[in-house]
TrEMBL record:
Listed CDD domains: cupin_RmlC-like
Domain of life: Bacteria
Keyword vocabulary terms for this entry: DNA-binding, Transcription, Transcription regulation
Transmembrane stretches, start-end: none
Species name: [Clostridium] celerecrescens 18A
Keyword DNA-binding recorded: yes
Pfam families: AraC_binding, HTH_18
InterPro entries: AraC-bd, Homeodomain-like_sf, HTH_AraC, HTH_AraC-typ_CS, RmlC-like_jellyroll, RmlC_Cupin_sf, Tscrpt_reg_AraC-type_HTH
SUPFAM superfamilies xrefs: Homeodomain-like, RmlC-like cupins
Single annotated GO MF: DNA-binding transcription factor activity
Domain HTH araC/xylS-type: 197-295
Name this polypeptide is given: AraC-like protein
Amino acid sequence: MQIIVDNQQKELKMHGSKEYPILISKEVLSRYDKGYFLDHWHPELEFTYIIEGEILYTINGFEHLLKKGQGIFCNQNMMHSGKMHNRQDCEYLSITFLPKLIYGFELSRIKTKYIDEIVKNPSLTHLLLLDNDQDAKNILQNLSEVYTLYLNNKEINELKLLTYLSTIWMNLYDCFEKSKSEFTVCAYNEKDLNRLKKILEYIQNNYGRKLSLEEIADSINICTNECCRFFKKHMNSTISTYILSYRIEKSLYLLDNTDLSITDLAHNIGFSSASYYTQIFRKQMGFTPIQYRNRKNNQL
C-alpha cells in the first residue's frame, strides 16, 4: 500500500466529501510499503495524533520524532512524509479536513480572524503538539477523545465532531499566538515549494531513463550545486537517494501486478542492470525482488 499522488506529489485521495470535507482514519506505518508514506501534500489541514510507537515525521525538510501521546498540526499544501524510527511500528490517528468546515462561509469573522491568521500565514508550516504547554495538552486530549469516538463508532455525530474541531482550533490559535517563544515554527516560501514540486515532477516523469543532475537543475534554471543544496534542505535527502527510492517504489507495483522478468523490470524503471537493481532493492527492503514477488504470491 502507498499514498497515490500526481506528478507534483499532490495526494489524489478524497478526504471526505463536498458536503462533509473531513476524513478521520487510524493508520499503521507497517501497512505502507517499506514502512513509510511518501512525500505528498493536499489542500486540507491535518492533525496527527500518535496512538502507539514512534514516527519520524518530516514537513518541508524539517524532521521531528513523535512519540505516543504527542501530535503535530500540518498546514495546508505542505509537503510531508512519515517513516518508522528504529524499525518500530507506529499507529496514529489522522484527521484531514478543509477549514471551511469550521468557518462556514467566505468573509465570515471566524474565517478572517481565526482561520486565515493561521492558514494563510507564510511562516507557519506546522506546529508540534507536545505536553509542555497547556493549550497543546488540550488539543492532544481532544484528539484522544475523537479517537475514542472513532473506535466506538466510525460514523461520528457530525455536530459533536464539529464541536471538537472548533475547540481544537481555538487551542491551536492560542498556541499560534505564542508560537514564537514556545513552539517550533519553520519558515515557508511559496516559491520554494513550487520549485520543489517542479523537481519532483521532472524526476517522476523521467525516472524510467538515465537522469543527470545537470538536466534536473536545468528544469528549474539553477546550477547543480544550488539544486543539490535546495533539495537536501527541503526533502532531507539527496537527489540520487530520492531517485533510487522512487524507482524502488515504482518497482513494487510491477512486481505485484506484472510477470516482467527482473531484467526487463529493472530497465523499465531506469536501472542500468538487474544486479544493481537487486542490490538497491535488498538494501532498502531487506530482501531481493524475487523474494518479494514470491512472498506476495504466497500470501494470495
